[in-house]
Task: inverse folding
């Protein structure tokens, strides 16, 4: 029995009569996390994790929510539904669906690396695993994050010594908070763009520990040359930056793994840090589920499905309308395109 199918409104569970991260308004939506391509407004009722609530409220307003803790099953028309940590951002979940002895899991977005701003990824044993594939090419292998944070700290320290403000771009929900939690706050003051500071407040409300941050104007401008300024990628071409003369800028994203990505983005430094699984991470997650059947969604779904088929699994793809929050601004679309042209070569290199 198919426990998840694609309908025009989104991924649908026929026996449970609910959708997962629907891209159009529906009666009953189960949400994996609060990124805009997964949590869309207009549905009648949402189910999500308690930890995601503060950020979901910011996006969906006073929509009607059922909130559950991780691994707390609820019954939907005889289907047992529970949410399990995906390690992607605060409150992110995989959806486990059990019906008449059959178990499916839908990953949403996930990563396997540790992240002190959210619960760690937990593999869900299942018969069928529906997985994302944002970075599903063998070229995507993340540098250990400690090393990435060392690079960021060294860059900030060097800038501060030369009295140059350090502007670090990262997606406002999730990436920015992971950056804040990982940098060495002893180097200097930390300023955040308003969009980031809003999410910081939601994270703190949920009990996540972040270093002290200030908005522009809350600290004297004479301190800016020693400051780390965390901003969303969309701030890159705005006048908001004029208050930081002489700045050095960096961009934190998985796409920075690609040759030329930093240059196309037009920043001084690229830091390879992603909230999605890399290629080994995807394969590890798939194998830990024990699933014999894999359905691949958004990303390099055909490449991943083909690789899994070649390795003896039953694999297919779902066409979804999920995107990629790491892209941030138009420049990275080029990166995604150039990567799309290289899958065959990348597989051969493997
Ligand atoms: Zn996401
Ligand atoms: Zn996504």
Result:
């Amino acid at each position: 029995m198919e426990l998840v199918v694609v309908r025009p409104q989104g991924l649908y569970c026929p026996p449970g009569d609910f959708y997962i991260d629907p891209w159009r308004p529906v009666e009953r939506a189960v949400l994996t996390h609060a990124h805009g391509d997964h949590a869309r407004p207009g549905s009648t009722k949402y189910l999500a994790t308690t930890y995601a609530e503060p950020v979901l409220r910011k996006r969906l307003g006073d929509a009607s929510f059922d909130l559950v803790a991780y691994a707390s099953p609820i019954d939907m028309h005889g289907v047992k539904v529970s949410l399990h940590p995906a390690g992607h951002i605060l409150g992110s979940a995989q959806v486990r669906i059990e019906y008449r002895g059959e178990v499916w899991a839908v990953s949403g977005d996930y990563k396997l690396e540790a992240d002190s701003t959210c619960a760690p990824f937990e593999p869900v044993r299942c018969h069928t695993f529906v997985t994302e594939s944002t970075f599903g090419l063998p070229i995507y292998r993340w540098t250990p994050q400690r090393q990435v944070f060392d690079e960021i700290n060294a860059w900030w320290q060097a800038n501060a010594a030369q009295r140059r403000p350090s502007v670090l771009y990262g997606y406002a929900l999730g990436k920015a908070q992971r950056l804040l939690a990982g940098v060495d706050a002893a180097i200097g003051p930390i300023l955040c763009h308003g969009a980031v500071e809003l999410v910081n407040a939601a994270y703190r409300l949920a009990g996540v520990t972040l270093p002290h941050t200030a908005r522009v104007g809350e600290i004297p401008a004479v301190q800016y040359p020693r400051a780390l300024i965390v901003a969303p990628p969309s701030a890159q071409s705005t006048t908001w930056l004029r208050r930081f003369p002489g700045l050095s800028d960096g961009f934190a994203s998985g796409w920075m793994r690609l040759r030329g990505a930093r240059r196309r983005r037009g920043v001084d430094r690229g830091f390879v840090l992603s909230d999605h699984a890399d290629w080994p991470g995807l394969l590890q997650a798939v194998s830990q589920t024990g699933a014999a059947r894999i359905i691949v969604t958004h990303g390099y779904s055909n490449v991943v499905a083909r690789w899994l088929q070649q390795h003896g699994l039953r694999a297919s793809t779902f066409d979804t309308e999920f995107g990629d929050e790491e892209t941030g601004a138009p420049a990275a679309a080029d990166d995604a395109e150039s990567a799309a042209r290289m899958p065959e070569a990348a597989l051969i290199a493997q």
